Amino acid sequence: METCLAPLRAWLRCTRRAEEKVSHALAGLSKASARNPWKCLALSFLGCLLCGLGFLRFNSISDATELWVDQHSQQMKNMNWADQYFDGFGRPNRLLITAKDGGNVLEMDKMTEILQIADDVRALVDESGKKFEDVCLDLGNGCFNSGVLRYFGTTAQFNSAVQSQADILEAVNKATYPDGQDAFASDSMGGIQRDINGSVISATAVRVDFVLYAEWEDMDTWEGALTLHFTKHDLTEQRYEKVNVYLQAERSRDDELNRTVQADIPLFALAFVLMSTFCACFLGKTASWTQSRRLLGVAEFLLVIFGCIAGYGTAMLVGVPFTVLHQILPFILVGIGIDDAFVICGAFDGTPKTLSYPKRIEVAVQRVGVSITLTTLTSLASFLLGATCVFPAVQWFCYYAASCCFFIWLLHLTAFPALLALDAHRAGLTPPRLDPCACFAARSSCMPGVLPVWDANGEEAAPEESKLGKGLCMMIRFLTSHVAGIVVTLLLFLAVAGIAAWQVSNGLGTDFDIMDLTPDQSFLRDFYNKEQEHFGGLSTGGLALPTNYYIRDVNFSTVEVQRSMEQVGAEMLALKSINSERGLKSWHTIFTLWANQYKGTSASLPLEAFVAVDVNRDGCAAGLPKGISSCATHFLTGPTFPNAVLEFLWTSMGAQFDGDIHWEGHDISVIRLRATHVDTVSSEEQVEGLEEAEKLTEKWQDALPGSFMSSGAYIFFDQYRIIVAQMTSSIGLCLGAVTVISALILGHPLSVLTVIIVLGAWAFK
């Protein structure tokens, strides 16, 4: 047995010697600070201010894709790659319009007012003098009309074509828009009622979209004017007679999130005042005018703030971005700093009064300095291990926290002993100086309990223990004086930990409600509420989500590649998560039909370039338009293929696919096939859709190397998939770090186990 315990005892002796050396070093540092308090304070604050120069490199990031998405995930790489070759379809700003009477919004008088609303928006002039026509998405024939207006066009076109309620219903029941694109009523109308034939007869809400495509600053400025038109004091303003209008501009989410944070600034200030007041009241004797340490408490609070300035400045200096999340960090850091101050003051009060103030501080820090250092070390280890999380917002938060923890620890071993020495000198003068008015001497009436208390034998009596201290001692004696008390305490603790673990296992989810980012009283929350009420979900979530399959760096003129495009499109459409009713948008299928129709009529369509293929081949029907059931009989191949595609894109039939092909000179380098996901409302459904897309991508790597299926929302679906694992691994790493540090310092296995169980239960809670 002795042989087995020998290494442990040797380790404990080694750690004990190391602890003594560290303790003496920290105590010496604090003593030196207490001997030269003003020099120490000047150097400390100067150092903090120098570190604070890092604020000159302030860089704030608020984009969700940069904060809460794994920047190195395959989905992020796919999205960034696709954005290089294919432009987004403008920047949408959406109006959701309902009838004031709660009825059918497709009635003639209400639709007329909706057209008037659209005209009012088009006439808006922003502060830079720009109108909608200056920043809109122009497809060559004027600003693009999206939403319900796409069925009718401009106000003039509506007035000339629509004379009655029947004309409105006829227009919204058409299978295609006037521009030839497929129309789906649920994209622009909510609360739809249909007759027995499936035709739309009424709707409780419609969408009207104003799509922008200009310089970012110009779009942002015009959206500000749009927001002011439909809101007042950040609340929805209803200014029309027959309909209610609810707005979501593209900038609205960022605006409302910033307003939420700004609204909390008074609460932040109040919280800081309360924390500094608590520190000032309880760091010393609360009821004493000379021994209360009120001034020291306020100085301690400011010390933590200077530590935060130094930590934030250092993080910014090395290029770590600032986010909204960092605004809550000072609350955590103030708690850490105040804890250290209370520990040092408690140890200082327990030192012999006959010693000089620097010597008393040395003895106090020698007693508790290692403990403070070890708790700081565990905090640093936890934050730095937390920075291994893949989400940048969490990484940057942990970097800032670790930097601040280091400076707060350093200030509490240098500047705080200096402050404590000055405060002790104030209280020890004859007569002592008032706290916090240190310039005024205290009268005898202000000094109850300051003079020593003598017992019956004429000797100085020990100070009376506080009621709180007595109560805690009684509780500990009661719980540990008998085995039964110890067992009951452990059982209760384990029961609470078990209940917490059970709650975590049942309540842990990854669903994200975007309304949590908006204030309770907000025009954007009004919009979200109405969209959920009339459309059954949020368009920013999983309603009619578009997706694409990208194919690159292959010879698109070969039969093999063209067959692969047909097959991958068919398999894409067959996925459970894809809406088969909306079909597949395949430029290749429509182009092949067009080429077969005009075969041999131009130099780019020579007869000898066509290769016969099986008309009943698998997958060929996936991209066929409505009303056509037969596949093309031939594929166009050879060097004229790119020229033929260009001719096709210039036709009315091919113009809709112009954005689906990227050219490098006269050659096709990248193409995409388009589809739409089914509506989803939960993260589980969205993750399933993402995993289907990943499996399809993997399957086609041999035939179409480098191809992939991607959508802008996939980066967030990937976030839902990994967020639980990331949280679990972060907690596990932190517990592991604490375990290692505890094992190195505490030595006793039972003590280490107790620490881990306590921290684990806290994490579950």
From TrEMBL:
The organism's place on the tree of life at top rank: Eukaryota
Residue ranges crossing the lipid bilayer per the database entry: 265-283, 295-322, 328-348, 368-393, 399-422, 478-502, 735-764
Gene Ontology cellular component list: membrane
UniProt domain SSD: residue ranges: 264-422
Pfam families on file: Sterol-sensing
Keyword vocabulary terms for this entry: Membrane, Transmembrane, Transmembrane helix
UniProt similarity note: Belongs to the patched family.
PANTHER family found in the cross-reference section: PATCHED-RELATED (PTHR10796), PATCHED-RELATED, ISOFORM A (PTHR10796:SF92)
Name of this protein: Niemann-Pick C1 protein
Source organism per UniProt: Cladocopium goreaui
